[in-house]
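Input.
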Amino acid sequence: MHGQYIRNIDRQLISAEDTFLWLSKGDLKAETESEIVAAQDQALQTKYYTIKILNAETNSKCRLCQQFDEKIDHIIPACPVLAKEQYIKRHARVCAQLHFQICKETVVLLDKKHRYEHVPISVETSQEGI
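Output.
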């Protein structure tokens, strides 16, 4: 299964250079980087991996939703159980990263040195005046 991600990039006309730009920046922890690469290579210990690679006899359905095969392609973007909470948290972390980069580029003083420590100030809205 190793190299499957690269083959998918070629088939989908995705820029390999831009796809791996995050590796050259060096602002991720080593553990985070290795988890991402393992996920891209479909090498995480999912039920699908256990059946197809380890040749084990087990149920292939997702341990959370029990509806679809437990593959990386299901867990990362499509599990209905994770969609209720975890995908929103992931989205918020991505937005925090973007906020951190914008603050750095516009010379706004930040109280944190690393992007993973940065927490933007929450914005609240009200119905008044609408």
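Residues 85-124 form one domain.
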